[in-house]
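re: ur question from earlier - yeah i can do the single chain one, its not a big deal. heres the input i used so u can compare w yours
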Amino acid sequence: MALVTRTLTNAGAPLYSPDGDLLVGVKIHFQLMDTGGRPSDAWDATTRQRVGGDVIVATTDAAGVFSVPLWPNTRGNRATKYKCRVQFDGFREFSGIVEDVPGVLLWVDFMLGGAVMAAQDMSAIAAAIASHVATADPHTQYAKEADLGTAALLNVGTTTGTVAAGDDARLLAVADKVDKIAGKGLSTEDYSTAEKSKLAGIATGATANATDAQLRDRTTHTGAQAISTVTGLQGALDADGTRLPKGALAVFSDGEAVVLTTPEDAGPTLVAIVGGEPAQQPLYFSGPFVMDSPERLAQAERDFVSGKMGRLDGVPF
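and the output i got, formated as tokens:
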């Protein structure tokens, strides 16, 4: 037999925070308690079904509304109540009772629950009302008549000089500050025609506020420039160097510097450069290890397997 329940809902009265924000996706917990405020269960005196144990959770939807089926406390074999906790700062935990009567139970009725309001609650409400009345401007979100100036007395009818008539002085002033182009709305340009003409005369890519000497000084250059924008650079680099395919090994001769370049469309490139004194004794190889004796080679392999050499991110071994 299905458990008898009654729907508790705040339909028509969305849930708001104490600061006035609509509460969307907020959870509300209900737990059956005994009269001493301890978690409890009960038996339905009519159907002989066990009730209680788990916390029942309801969640507000996009409109701040929730509905939840609750077992009526008055059907129990002993007195119980629901402890309710809204999971949002500013809400006090409270308890309420669900009566076994037809129809849905409204949230406000559940919160009141027939309980007498405490004296401290009455005092807090009275203090809040008095503070609101005494505030010079309790609703700062609204414009005050004093801030509107003559606009507060402006006739918005259709007579000459009104906004609706289209010849109010302020309306005409605004009309002179935007383009009037057929088929277009307000212009997105926020500068004058003279400024527009001046900007149109500047060549594309021009550098402003720089002398020739500054332009020739490489220390003043920032950012990166594509190789393709420098005529002949890629060809000169190709002719002066050796192309290395992916995964190649190059052995450099003695010199002062090494210059490495990549094609513009090559994407990120990883290069490892190693060096050292020439080996003058026999070398022993095994996988990636090169040592000067079989014993040291075996020790290197053991160190690698045991993790003493560490791990590299992205390397699967």
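The first strand starts at residue 6 and ends at 9. not sure if urs matches, ping me
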